[in-house]
């Protein structure tokens, strides 16, 4: 194939590139799953973001992690499905729409349910897709054809099926129970939707007089207004202070209601006075105590947080206003004893942002214990699901052990309306706590059941409440695949493979899914739960709306590109489940860490441009490398040189390392390893090593081997990096492989590189570490001595290690090329081997020496014939010859090191050994030089004639004096108590930092001065 595009543009434009490939992938349905195809399934369901949401850094982080895993497993040949979707978010949508209505001077009750829902769907159509479109900007490889919404018809059918089934099995019931009530949203909320906050409050002490007039008891409370609903006072049965009062009655202040003194072991004698007021309708512990002692349940609150008629003179007052007024009245009546400052926790509604009220209410509940026990059995008997990191297993287990019945009804309109219909004709047209009902999957089924039970004239009204959002989300892993129908998707992709989610919703969502799945499918919904951490801000603080420290990922995408942000978020993960920190300058809206990833993308782009500029317009196919998944892409391994074998060995080591990391959820470690290989080994070293071989006048075989190796490793790099940075790798791969424009393949569907152990050569890599260290040391010494960049120098290397000398000799050409060395001497103590550039006449000299040797041998044989005829003389020479042969064999052939020296000297490969054939006398040491060490190799660079030694020495001494003076000045300031005590802390710390820097600079400069030996 002839190249149509010989190279990439000079500058990488992430914005054009990313938009192009996102469009291509989606329009060509590259990620559309097919359950009828072969391959081991790999399925992930997206943690559905709220339809009200917009992309935040947590979404970006989670999506980057999931997409990395999904792309990797797709390239591994698995039949992959990443299923996207959103959650209807009942409370969040209600909050938005009710604010809109309030601005219009309306309420949802005035609007009516049908009109409100019509408006809700309209809002969803106009604004609800915001986060989906933003997720597309991240380039996530989801199957958009399978996008789901929790209120879709299919998912609504699954919800009705689950509700009716659980009800028929006795696992869903309707009853009066104490729930967490949010006055702001006027809805029940689950325990996990409650956030406990520590507040500075008060503890009020009141006297409750005994009815017989014999005295009083003192109680303490943090919620004085609830005393209006007290129905008892409780003491511990073992508390000697109050045993004599058990069974007596008290007259409740204000209400004048007579209430009993009861004993209950739940009472803590050490809290307050040891006497506690009991309000069964407004406290969870009191609720249980009330049931145990058959106490009355008196509700004093309306659903909006005001007091009802049971509040007497305080009816209609807001709960916090009533609190003040109740305290004032008790003080006036002489019942207030004291008020203490008291720090305690108050439960707040996560959505309403106000303190919740325990409220007695008739609601729908799931009997949770049977579901939780089944999930526990899977965990304890099969370790299913498996948590990564493993420490989260205990947290998950503790949730399952301690669960109480789950209140699933919400007093809202947007959501899945509870599939229960009340026969209101039986209770005067009203829904009451005692109205009979039927549960059905549809309205038609409800009418059939109701007529059969109550007659043809029955009047039905569906329960106005909706189900808790987490009820439908609990079905997500299998309802999205078609359950309750037995679909091909369900058969192929369920149970799903991996769930990637944050630790903060282990109970909100993870436990709900495992309980529902265990009950309805008999399997856990996923094999592995990968728990990721949080994205923290530049000060290592958790990002939150309340702290106003969030970072808009779209802003960073617009500035640096999607790949740069994705790669940064994944690379920052130091271990599975760990939080990550994102550097950010809020004044400039810049991120140094994301900028570094953009620079990495540019580095890769420029390296790819260099490679393709040196392929003579050929693609990988023209070079004999193919473009597919083959691992035998190098056609002639024998033609490879030392550096080629080294980079290919390193490449296969990185494949092995990367796959091992990803398979074990070490995504951050995998990203960093690929980065180090690309930037360091490939770009900084291998490309530099082969530049001379790519010249037009270079040896053709060497040039072709370099081209093949460059293309082979570059294509492998693109495949390795693709799951992390999909856009730039796709763009480069398309050009490198010269895909046809009309029907291109895509990198996203290529095979991930596989390790070929035959290419891995640890010994060679160790050798190259020494060569690279030597080159780097020479470069550093040049810089320290301020040698002009273009000047070629003399370098002397000394080591007592024979193996190190062999390595240095083998890589002499690399050292000379990359460190700009004219004459390189490699010495063992005082026996150096001087390496100079190979002379073109060397071959002719060798031929001449061979011919001369043959002539000499012929003359010697003739002389030997003559001598052999002389008496005794022939025998003498035979004895001498035999002795010499024995000495030669013992010295050069018996031991392994001796053989290596002998064979290397006479039979070395010019490509891999290139050793000098001579060992001249050690040269005189340079009078003035600069020295360094790498491993056990001493590197000495004579400076005479290269730099002005005295000028350099003087410059270093002046720099030392200046740095010492700066350090002395800073020490003086920091030893002054007035400065340390009175200056701002940041100024003092800045001075300490400057002192440490100055002292370090002095140390470095002195070391440089000492190297001028």
Automatic annotation (TrEMBL):
It catalyses: tRNA(Val) + L-valine + ATP = L-valyl-tRNA(Val) + AMP + diphosphate. Residues 838-908 form the Cyanobacterial aminoacyl-tRNA synthetase CAAD domain. One of its GO terms (molecular function) is valine-tRNA ligase activity. Signal peptide: none annotated. A motif ('KMSKS' region) lies at residues 542-546. Residues 644-792 form the Methionyl/Valyl/Leucyl/Isoleucyl-tRNA synthetase anticodon-binding domain. The keyword Ligase applies. InterPro entries: aa-tRNA-synth_I_CS, aa-tRNA-synth_Ia, Anticodon_Ia_Val, CAAD_dom, M/V/L/I-tRNA-synth_anticd-bd, Rossmann-like_a/b/a_fold, tRNA-bd_arm, tRNAsynth_Ia_anticodon-bd. It is found in: Cytoplasm; Membrane. It is an enzyme of class 6 (ligase). Keywords: Aminoacyl-tRNA synthetase, ATP-binding, Coiled coil, Cytoplasm, Ligase, Nucleotide-binding, Protein biosynthesis. Residues 948-1012 form the Valyl-tRNA synthetase tRNA-binding arm domain. Residues 20-582 form the Aminoacyl-tRNA synthetase class Ia domain. The keyword Signal does not apply. It holds the Pfam family Anticodon_1. It is a multi-pass membrane protein. A motif ('HIGH' region) lies at residues 49-59. SUPFAM superfamilies: Anticodon-binding domain of a subclass of class I aminoacyl-tRNA synthetases (SSF47323), Nucleotidylyl transferase (SSF52374), tRNA-binding arm (SSF46589), ValRS/IleRS/LeuRS editing domain (SSF50677). ATP binds at residue 545. Residues 946-1008 form a coiled coil. Its EC number is 6.1.1.9. Catalyzes the attachment of valine to tRNA(Val). As ValRS can inadvertently accommodate and process structurally similar amino acids such as threonine, to avoid such errors, it has a 'posttransfer' editing activity that hydrolyzes mischarged Thr-tRNA(Val) in a tRNA-dependent manner. Belongs to the class-I aminoacyl-tRNA synthetase family. ValS type 1 subfamily. HAMAP family: Val_tRNA_synth_type1. Monomer. This is Valine--tRNA ligase. It comes from Nostoc parmelioides FACHB-3921.
């Amino acid at each position: 194939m002839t190249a149509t595009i010989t190279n990439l543009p000079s500058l990488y434009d992430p914005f054009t590139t990313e938009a192009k490939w996102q469009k291509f992938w989606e329009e060509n349905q590259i990620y559309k799953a097919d359950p009828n195809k072969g391959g081991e399934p790999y399925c992930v369901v997206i943690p559905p973001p709220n339809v009200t949401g917009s992309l935040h850094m947590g979404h970006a982080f989670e999506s980057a992690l999931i997409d990395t895993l999904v792309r990797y497993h797709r390239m591994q040949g698995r039949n992959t499905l990443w299923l996207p979707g959103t959650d209807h978010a009942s409370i969040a949508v209600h909050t938005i729409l009710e604010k809109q209505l309030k601005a219009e001077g309306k309420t949802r009750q005035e609007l009516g349910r049908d009109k409100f829902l019509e408006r809700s769907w309209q809002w969803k159509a106009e604004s609800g897709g915001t986060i989906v479109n933003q997720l597309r900007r991240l380039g996530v490889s989801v199957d958009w054809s399978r996008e789901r919404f929790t209120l879709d018809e299919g998912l609504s059918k699954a919800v009705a099926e689950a509700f009716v089934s659980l009800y028929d099995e006795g696992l869903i019931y309707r009853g009066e129970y104490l729930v967490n009530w949010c006055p702001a949203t006027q809805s029940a909320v689950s325990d996990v939707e409650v956030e406990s906050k520590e507040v500075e409050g008060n503890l009020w002490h009141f006297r409750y007089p005994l009815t017989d007039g014999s005295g009083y008891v003192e109680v303490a409370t943090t919620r004085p207004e609830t005393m209006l609903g007290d129905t008892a006072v409780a003491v511990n049965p073992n508390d000697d202070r109050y045993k004599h009062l058990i069974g007596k009655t008290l007259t409740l202040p204000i209400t004048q209601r007579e209430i009993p003194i009861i004993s209950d072991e739940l009472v803590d004698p050490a809290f307050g006075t040891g006497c506690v007021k009991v309000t069964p309708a407004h406290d969870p512990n009191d609720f249980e105590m009330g049931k145990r002692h058959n106490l009355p349940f008196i509700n004093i609150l309306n659903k909006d947080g005001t007091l009802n008629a049971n509040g007497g003179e305080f009816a209609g007052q807001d709960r916090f206003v009533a609190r003040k007024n109740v305290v004032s009245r008790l003080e006036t009546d002489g019942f207030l004893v004291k008020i203490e400052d008291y720090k305690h926790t108050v439960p707040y509604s996560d959505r309403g942002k106000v303190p919740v009220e325990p409220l007695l209410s008739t609601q729908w509940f799931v009997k949770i214990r049977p579901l939780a026990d089944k999930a526990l059995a899977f965990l304890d008997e099969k370790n299913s699901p498996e948590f990564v990191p493993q420490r989260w297993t205990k947290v998950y287990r503790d949730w399952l052990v301690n669960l109480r019945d789950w209140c699933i009804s919400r007093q809202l309109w947007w959501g899945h309306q509870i599939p229960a219909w009340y026969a209101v004709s039986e209770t005067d047209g009203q829904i009451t706590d005692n109205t009979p009902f039927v549960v059905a999957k549809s309205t038609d089924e409800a009418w059939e059941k109701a007529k059969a039970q109550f007659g043809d004239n029955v009047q039905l009204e569906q329960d106005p409440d909706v189900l808790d959002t987490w009820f439908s989300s609990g079905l997500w892993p299998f309802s999205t695949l078609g359950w309750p129908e037995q679909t091909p998707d369900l058969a192929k992709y369920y149970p799903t493979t991996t769930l990637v989610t944050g630790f903060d919703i282990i109970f909100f969502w993870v436990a709900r899914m495992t309980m529902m799945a265990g009950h309805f499918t008999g399997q856990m919904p996923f094999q592995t739960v990968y728990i990721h951490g949080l994205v923290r801000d530049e000060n290592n603080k958790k990002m939150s709306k309340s702290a106003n420290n969030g970072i808009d990922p779209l802003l960073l995408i617009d500035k640096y590109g999607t790949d740069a942000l994705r790669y940064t978020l994944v690379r920052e993960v130091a271990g599975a489940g760990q939080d990550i920190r994102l550097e950010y300058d809020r004044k400039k809206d810049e991120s140094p860490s994301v900028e570094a990833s953009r620079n990495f993308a540019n580095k890769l782009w420029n390296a790819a441009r260099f490679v393709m500029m040196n392929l003579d317009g050929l693609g990988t196919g023209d070079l004999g490398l193919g473009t597919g998944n083959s691992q035998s892409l190098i056609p002639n391994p024998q033609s490879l040189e030392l550096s080629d074998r080294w980079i290919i060995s390193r490449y296969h080591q990185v494949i092995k390392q990367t796959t091992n990391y990803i398979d074990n959820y070490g995504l951050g470690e995998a990203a960093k390893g690929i980065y180090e290989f690309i930037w360091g080994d490939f770009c900084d070293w291998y490309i530099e090593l082969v530049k001379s071989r790519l010249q037009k006048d270079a040896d053709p075989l060497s040039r072709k081997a370099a081209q093949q190796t460059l293309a082979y490793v570059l294509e492998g790099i693109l495949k390795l990096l693709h799951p992390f940075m999909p856009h730039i790798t796709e763009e480069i791969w398309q050009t490198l492989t010269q895909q046809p424009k009309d029907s291109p393949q895509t990198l996203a569907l290529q095979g991930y590189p596989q390790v070929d152990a035959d290419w891995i050569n640890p010994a060679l890599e160790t050798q190259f570490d020494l060569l690279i260290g030597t080159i780097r040391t020479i470069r550093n010494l040049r810089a320290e001595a301020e040698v002009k960049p273009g000047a070629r120098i003399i370098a002397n290397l000394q080591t007592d290690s024979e193996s190190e000398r062999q390595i240095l000799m083998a890589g002499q050409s690399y050292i000379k090329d990359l460190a700009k060395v004219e004459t390189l001497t490699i010495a063992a103590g005082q026996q150096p081997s001087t390496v100079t550039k190979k002379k073109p006449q060397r071959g002719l000299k060798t031929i001449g020496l061979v011919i001369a040797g043959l002539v000499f041998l012929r003359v010697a044989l003739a002389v030997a014939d003559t001598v052999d005829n002389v008496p005794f003389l022939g025998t003498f020479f035979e004895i001498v010859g035999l002795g010499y042969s024995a000495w030669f064999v013992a010295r050069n052939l018996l031991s392994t090191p001796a053989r290596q020296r002998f064979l290397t000297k006479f039979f070395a490969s010019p490509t891999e050994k290139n050793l000098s054939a001579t060992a001249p006398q050690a040269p005189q040491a340079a009078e003035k030089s600069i020295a360094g060490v790498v491993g056990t190799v001493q590197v000495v660079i004579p400076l005479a004639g290269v730099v002005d030694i005295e000028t350099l020495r003087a410059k270093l001494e002046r720099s030392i004096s200046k740095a010492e003076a700066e350090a002395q000045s800073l020490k003086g300031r920091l030893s002054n108590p007035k400065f340390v005590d009175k200056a701002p802390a940041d100024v003092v710390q800045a001075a300490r930092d400057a002192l440490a820097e100055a002292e370090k600079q002095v140390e470095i400069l002195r070391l440089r001065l000492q190297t001028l030996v």
